[in-house]
Amino acid sequence: MRLAIWSVTRGAGNLAKKIGVKLEADIYTLKKFQLENTIQIENFTDELTKKFNNYDGHIFIMATGIVIRKISCLIKSKDIDPAVLVIDEGGNFVISLLSGHIGGANELTYKVANTFSLLPIITTSSDVTGKIAIDTLSQKLNCEMESLTKAKDLTSLIVDNKKVEILLPNNVKIGENTNSSGVVIASNKKNIDIMRIYPKNLIVGVGCRRGTPKEEIFKALDEVMKKHNLAYESIKRVATVDIKADELGLLSLVEELQKELVIISREEIKEVEQRFKGSEFVKKQIGVSCVSEPCALLASNGNGDFLEQKYIYNGITISIYEEKFGYE
Questions:
Q1: What does residue 312 show for φ and ψ, rounded to 5 degrees?
Q2: Element at 116 (helix H, strand E)
Q3: Domains by residue range for the chain, with CATH
Q4: I want to staple 321 with a disulfide (CB 3.0 to 4.6 A). Which of 23, 28, 113, 203 is the partner?
Q5: Which of 182-191's residues contact partners 24+ apart within 8 Å by CB, and which partners?
Q6: Are 120 and 109 in contact (CB under 8 A)?
């Protein structure tokens, strides 16, 4: 989790240094205080505006009123906003202010409180009442939610002490493969609030010729996804070989899908390529005999199986590795 700590007074800056070292955070202080081992800035508002989306979380050592006014024009949605914490300059309290669940602010608040002996202030209803929110559940299971609105509605039912069930097939437990093609719900309720969450456990390996357009790569990927009835929301990352790190079509596709791109070196591939059927022609061209399969495997946690070993489409190879649900 990439963190930034912000301060606008000398005292807050000194406290930021103490906290920042242990959290391995970037520490921003005003240049006029000349605090060593910090990023010294001229203008707090301008710097925060430029850097707000560059971090997973922000810790402000100042009044909550200042923070609210400064971030009000920067925040967008709870599913993408970074975590925001506030600590008083006296070092008494740490407040989870924004993105408590999905952004991880609540968890970070407890971590900071325990590490520096501060009093944690958490105001989200589910946490205060000792219940789990749907967005927290989705995060813990490493899934993507179908709908923020449905998550809010279901969490409201949980907070209101209504019974909400997590339905899994009888032969499935957390930690095993929970993918199913259908679910039957037996209930005498006329209206049931339901939603689905997508496990992020698909690793896509891609190989292609130089200059392959984005549209062609997408066609190949789409055919494989449809073949196995897979959801794009469950793609955890896309992987390719280092020689394709600047492949514009692939870069454009990954950006459009908003997925992480992992670059695998040919040296890494050489360690595992013997496990796959390769091509001598490809080996002569780039130094390794195969790309999509070893890339998918090496970009995964190694705990799973291939759903698609190697799908070939117009010079493009797609491999899909499925990590077992519930394993990091």
A1: -110, 130
A2: helix 105-116
A3: 3-123 (3.40.50.11220), 134-198 (no CATH), 200-323 (3.30.420.180)
A4: 203
A5: none
A6: yes
Cα 169 from Cα 178, distance rounded (Å): 8
Q: pLDDT tens digits for 268-314?
A: 999 999 999 888 888 998 999 999 999 999 999 989 999 999 999 99
Contact status, residue 168 vs residue 316, Cβ threshold 8 Å: no
Output the DSSP codes for 6-31. Answer: EESSHHHHHHHHHHHHHHT-EEEEEG
Please answer whether residues 85 and 103 qualify as being in contact, where contact means their C-beta atoms are separated by less than 8 angstroms: no
Q: What is the pLDDT of residues 216-230, one digit of tens each?
A: 999 999 999 999 999
State which H helix or E strand residue 164 sits in: none
pLDDT single digits (tens) 145-193: 878 888 888 888 888 888 777 765 454 455 444 565 556 565 677 887 8
pLDDT band at 132 (very low <50, low <70, confident <90, very high): confident
167, two tokens: 């339905």
